[in-house]
Design brief:
heterodimer; A: alpha/beta; Rossmann fold; 12 helices; about 20% strand; B: alpha/beta; five-stranded parallel sheet; two-stranded antiparallel ribbon; 10 helices; 7 strands
Amino acid sequence: MARAYFMAAMNQALRAAMEEDETVIVMGEDVDRGVFGVTRGLIDTFGANRIRKTPISEAAFVGGAVGAAAAGLKPFAHVMFSSFFYVAMDQVANQAARLRYMSGGQVELPIVYFAGTGPSGSAAAQHSENPHSILMHTAGLKVVMPSTPYDAKGLMMAAIRDPNPVVYLADLRLSRRRESIPEDPYEIPLGVADVKRQGEDVTVVALASLVHVAVDVAGKLESDGVSVEVVDPRSLVPLDWDTIVASVRKTGRLVVADPARRLCGLAAEVIAGVSERAWDSLHSRPCRVTWPDIPVPFSPVLEGRLDVGADDLEQAIRTTMGSPVVAGSA
Amino acid sequence: MSPDTLLRLYRRMVRIRIFEEKVQELHRLGKLPGFVHVYVGEEAVAVGACSVLRDTDHITSTHRGHGHCIAKGADVAPMMAELFGRADGYCRGKGGSMHIIDTSLGILGANGIVGGGIPMATGSGIADEVLGRDGVTVCFFGDGAANQGVLLEALNLAAIWKLPVVYLCESNQYMEFTPTTDLTAGRIFRRGEPFGVASMEVDGNDVLEVRRVVGEAVDRARRGEGPTLIEAITYRLSGHSEGESAFVSAYRTEEEVDSWKARDPITRFRDLLQTGAGISAARLDSIDAEEQEAVNEAVVFAESSPFPSPDEALDHVFAPAGG
């Protein structure tokens, strides 16, 4: 075990994957230096043939990854900020997410599309997106969004080994998070959620950096006699309904904390899915805390208004606990 | 060039023409779901280009892709079944006319997005380079796609990395229903020059010229000397899509179409084979008849193939992990 930062944990997995499989390559802007640290140092080991520094041409290298995968490689495409997926959206949604399906299953596309994601402090509306809901809705893309270095490393290994396009979103708010993780490679399967804190009264499904907010709030509420269970989905496609539903069946209450816009978002999907599957076990109306439906603003004060904070989540949990609405009468 | 090679080129072009004319007939009869774009008049480009490729080389294709697939060796029976949306189609009915793929033949797919295959072909070239293979990818695209930004991105990337990709623009003179020259600045083949990409035009209705020029480009690519941009000048003798007269009025004159019919690539090559290579009309007629029979059989195969089970719509979104 050794302590590793969030991005360094992914770097360890990427390095191990490149060592075990020579068809794994990296493409993206400034990947020789590694803007977020995920590709840092790999150029020295693997050379410029496998660590391919591209021009600022997202459509070319995001789409290039599709052709490269179809022709025998396992590309790790470093899209940098997740807002830049929109620049290459034809290649993401019309090509990468479609080729296997349209071919009747002939093609495997083992691609990782990696990007740093979410507000990172006054980066404004074109460098702060959390596009996971759009990508979840595409059909044909797996989507991963971890919350800890341990999960980040294991999920990265699984993402690279997966025979499908996997969008791997690394919440930039987690960059300074550090913990002890195994030095050897390991894999956490895609589609398996993790209960980050056990509780009895209310389930909070929280994503990425909001997992830590939720755990903190849970600790605070414990002294008030409210026992909060925190479920981290980790993978969004596939989504681990079994773990989420089992938790809600136990607690009877649901709050979803999603660092993204409200309309058609992950939070809406989780509440709808739980309502369909476990309506009879709900003691109160489910609740969600999300961004308002606005672009991410620049000024720290404005960005703070958008963010989901501990207070927002605590309020939502208290509302859910204190609103004994019988299911069906809401 | 050996008579066998000449006849192989002729046979492939005839196969495409007969396939496409059958598709037009089936569309008129209302037998094909969806819309289809046929390649009538452009056969020399696909056949000339693919004639210099190996089975292991790759191509990317377009919405007008039947000719590219046949030229690269695709079987007309599962192609036709795919157009009918049947279980024995290349894509089990999931792709249709615009998405025929056969990875075993290096066909990375027809593509419904204009210019959509350009980055993909570039990536296929990256795979050849990284893996140290001497493969080549031919990227077919139309004059309409030449105005998509990804072409610039791809040419730049292919140039800096000396990728083994031949970008082959089929200038068939129309972007849907508008003359290309109305909406296109400059000459398309010259767009490779600022990148230092070998750039040239070729008579796309002359199969031997296409074969020669693409052959040189493919040889350069195999030697590691990088990409080429070729503009093949040809003409779309049929419409943009079948049945278009129902929603678009005439946009070109009969005189114009007739002038290109006089340069029909198959008629031209047939004349050359008879006068220049001493091949008899009877020999060529027998090839025509064999190909007609093969296409007729493909229709029987397609129509007798079952539809996929409706629940197959749910399959093939993801590959099974570990599979």
